Amino acid sequence: MQLKTIQPIHVLYFETQTSFNEISEHIRHVAHALYRDAVKNDLEITGPVYWIYNGADGNPETVFTLTIALPVSPKPELANSEFRTKYLEKFECATDQLYGGWDGFREVYGQLIPAILSNNLTMSGENREIYINLDFENPDRNTTEIQIGILK
């Protein structure tokens, strides 16, 4: 576990209410649409895709806010965009890397959460997954940074 402060990041984003039972309907196509929209609006892409979970508690039926965000350069106006832009706020977190398939999420979260609690830190209710490298044909080549928000 590493503790980090993530500075504000300007993003093009999609936001919805969903649950883990329904989350698969957003995989791949939302990120594709964000990339297309960024290019169409001449935005410089400045980082990998973020999935941000607010209010998710691990229960497959709990409804939470999902934000899928693509870091981009700020631009005053977007032409005919289906998405909006904003700054993600400064984010204090405990983080670790997952190398390989996403079936390893449970293990990484299962190590991070007890480490946070044993260090007397309080979770904020926001978690982020940053998809540094995606390889859908060879999932063992994936690199994902998992960030669990903490209160300071």
UniProtKB/TrEMBL annotation:
Domain AraC effector-binding: 1-151
InterPro entries tied to this protein: AraC_E-bd, GyrI-like, Reg_factor_effector_dom_sf
Residues annotated as signal peptide: none
SUPFAM superfamilies listed in its UniProt record: Probable bacterial effector-binding domain (SSF55136)
Domain of life: Bacteria
Gene3D superfamilies in UniProt: Regulatory factor, effector binding domain
Name of the protein described by the UniProt record: GyrI-like domain-containing protein
Organism: Dyadobacter pollutisoli
